[in-house]
Amino acid sequence: MKLAVTLLLKDVSWSESHDSLLIAAVADGSIKPYDLALPITSNPIRSLHEHAREIHSVDYNTVRKDSFLSSSWDDTIKLCTIDRPTSVRTFKEHAYCVYSAAWNPQHGDVFASASGDCTARIWDVREPGSTMILPAHEFEILSCDWNKSDDCIIATASVDKSIKVWDVRNFRVPIAVLNGHGYAVRKVKFSPHRGSVIASCSYDMTVCLWDYMVEDSLIGRYDHHMEFAIGVDMSVLVEGLLASTGWDELVYVWQHGTDPRAP
Amino acid sequence: MATESSVPPNPTDQKPQNPASEVVQPTLENQQDMAEASKESSPPSVFVNSEPMREDQVQNAVKFLSHPRVRGSPVIYRRSFLERKGLTKEEIDEAFRRVPDPTPTISNAPTTVTNQDSHAKSSANINPQAPSQSLQPAVVTPAGVISKVGTFSRFHWSHALLAVGVLAASGAGTAVLFKKTIIPTLKSWIRKVVMEEEEDPVAKSNSKPSLTEEAAAAAKAAAAAAAEVAQASQEMLVSKTEENRYFKELMDLLGVQVREMKSMSKAIQKLEGRREAIVDYTLENLFPLLLSAKCTLSLYISFLPTVDNPERTEVQFFSIGSCKSIIVEVVTPEWVDYFEHLTERNIVGLKGSATTFSRQSNTPRRISIAEQDDHRVSVSRQSYANGNADFDLRSGRSSSPPATVESSVAPHPKSYAESVAMVQRGERPPNIRKINDLPSNPNQPVSIPHITPRPQPWEFGLAQNTSNHVLHSQESSDGLDSIFQDNGLGNQLNGDSSVPWWQRKNVRITEIESEDEHKTGSSSVLTNGRPVQRSWVPPQPPPVVMPEAAAAIRQPKKSLIQKEELTDDQLLARSSDITDELQRITKISESGGVEETNGGISELNRNEIQNEDNSYIET
User: Fold this and answer.
1) What's the whole-model pTM score?
2) Given CB atoms, is A38 within the 8 Å cutoff of chain B?
3) How many CA atoms does the CB half-sphere of B252 hold within 13 Å?
4) B507-546, pLDDT tens digit by residue?
5) What is the DSSP letter of A219?
């Protein structure tokens, strides 16, 4: 089913509670949830236009399953639910664009955000502000993600071409620094199956797979894209299944260890 | 910014209640613990910075914030900077508290300020400010600068400011002096010179001009002459090269013409046999014209073989002055061929930019050949009949022939630059559709989900842990078998579509189960009363702590390759069956398969694990 939007869609997140609901982040600052079970004319089912600038990412709460975060270039993060026409909360502390926000997979009230002001923050929705500030990089942080099995480990990906893995209990020093990308790392994703495996995609057109517990962390590198690789994800259902997309307008789905371009 | 500044006050408001900032967190945590008992395990939330405030960091922050330049910057940048330096929120807030708001007076506070606490500090600052203010009454601007300083405590800072002030004053003074004294002298000097100049022409004619002037004049004349000579030679060179080029062009043209002439004659023979002579004649007409076209200013060829030729063919090459354009209007395919050939070879040959022509029969097209001022020729052709042949026309062109045939397809914008310009003006480039993406019914209820949500791989183990502690000890493979039977699933891992996958999930579950025994302190959130307490067979679990399982998984690569011969049909069958299986499994687990899946599939051997890996590839 094709859904048409006037503007660029920056990110999409599937709902955890609905099998047909997905949240789309639009470049004009609105959040549009789409329900694929409904006919196309009644989509999108809502439009929440609260952000002043582009929404760079949306993330659905995997624990509570009813709320999602939208991180925007207007320096704020908004917590919304489907059933409310307005946002529930706004988190405004970053000094620059918020590039991504990620819920903690175990704690439904904790999330982390990555921002262009070179810090990553950890928030608790029960608190008025952020609870931790990680000055993670010297440059903008483009993405962050939690370790799915260890709820205290977070990875941040930055314009300085590195990915750093932090333990929030000891956040002054990273656990691991993963270098190897030639350009800014656009997105990181922890594997749902193997706790130390991270997938990342970068503007150097490659998708890399890392294991920070291993001596030489890079365990896989795929350069199948002809343009910037901007999205990567690991399948929750199938271990080792990777999907990536890029500016070359292609989406690849492949199993780790195989050639993405193989039919 | 308003909200930003409201955020620091929030924590600071709490602070007066708790003198030590570390107490704030535990207080909150206590509240949390009371609110949600199961939320946290014994230590307070790990996502909170529980470090005590570092005094040295706070000191550094205070110094930073006291800097005059920093004071002029927005609050949010200061906070952002401190955050980047690794200060915690409490430290930043403390620093902000210690640095009072900008005072209008200067401060020459001695170093003792740094040793005092916040209250004493502010009072100490105020004291030295009064006496030091009298130090510089005279200079206005430096005082203005210093007033921004606020609570400087270093002695040498005021020294530096003093120096700056003195320098500024001296600068101002010199400027004034300069204006007052030097300018008049300059003016008088200029006047004198002018007077002299007026006298000079008179003097020259009568009296002997000075040698220097003569020499200067001579030099000037020589220079001018040299320049002229250089220019002339340059022009000659340019024209020579031009001539050469044109000669070459002409030679090429001639050569091609000869060839084309022959083909033309053949073509025309086909059309009308007896017209050959005329065609040849007209083609011959070309030659003298081309020969004479040595210079770009007068290249004009009119070419009208219309004698009894139903297809009117008109070829006009004209170049007039600087807007040279050669327009070829072609009607018939044969002529098209000819001119394509011609243009590709001849005209285009001059520059070398070939364009591909899509051939359309009986479609009047315009082949426009634009010649730029620098005598370069480029060919661009617009053909809208099929809507896709679209070439960028040079911006320097003066003539842009409109398309004689517009197709129904929306014409693509000419170039990216033009699209951008259109968007900036507010228009929509033609190839963008306007889509209405607003919700048609803002209150549209969300559809009822078909599939109940399932726990994530990493969650599942935790859910099992907390909700099935009692059952954890049960170990039975019977349960698993019964599940198999109920679903009618066989035990084949290879052939059957969804069984192996499903089976594997069970394997994973048990692995997680045993793994969770080792795990400490991971709290489960699924006990929040979510309806999703599905201890149903989940997908894939997180990292395996069991060593043998881990080893088995790490074997992967070689076994992966072996198993790649499964067909696509099987894959499709699997994927389609999965949802069905999931639902069935859901029901079963709900009915009580939980305990069964809990237990000991740990006995399942490595083979299964390996096979699982294999089939995942195929999925």
Assistant:
1) 0.44
2) yes
3) 17
4) 444 444 444 444 433 333 333 333 434 444 444 444 444 5
5) E
